[in-house]
Amino acid sequence: MRGSVPLRWIEEAEARSARDIARLNQAEARSRDGVASTMRSGAPLLERLRGLLHRLVWTSVGLLSHRIGVAVGVPARLAGASGDSSGEVDADRVLVTVLITDIVESTKRVAEIGDRHWRELLDRHDDAARQQLKRFGGRVVNNRGDGFLATFDSPARAVRCATAIAETITGLGISVRSGVHVGEIYLRRDEISGIAVHIAARIAAIANPGEAFVSKTVRDLTIGSGLTFEDRGIHQLRGVPEEIHLYAMRAAAGNASTTCRRGLADERP
Asked: Residue 35's pLDDT is what?
């Protein structure tokens, strides 16, 4: 917290100071006893007093240094932790590929089949999606009930995972759409945040059933990976200041149906 010292740190500093003061008092008591003993024994008083004085001075210096460290060093550490240092590195901000999946018309399906059957269907959806996420090296951040939020180190693997999920889910009688985007995010415990997450969600919201829409950034970064995309034009996503060029990676089932329709059209006289 900016401008304040945690109570626990203050208590620990005070406890250390109290122990140092106690040690100083003990040293002073030993010094007094040493002087008295010296006077009784008749030993050279000047040499004994010089040694005792030397120990007292260094004990006092050590205590003073500790108190300065408590007064100055702790706030300095706090200033660095709170971001006041101009050279501090933003260590919790990383570059990842964000994938968001969404079941198409989930509310309508719940109304059609009922809560119980929907729960069973959703469990099968979750199992199938998690299997593909694990297969392609995705890290599940959140399961929103009707879809997943995951991150990847590779944009190509994220796109392939999205299409694999769409292909697998088709067999369950439901359809999934996905959004993929590459950008920097903030990591906080097991959660992520940042504009890249919002962009991926907006992309998924406008994707067609069975397709994964990706940003131009993703398309450019996957050149040479063997992935092919269809141009979906430039879009103004809600809440995003700049327009984004989107592309689609169609699932294999979708490609097959498209090819079939084109073949039938070619056979027509």
From this structure: 52
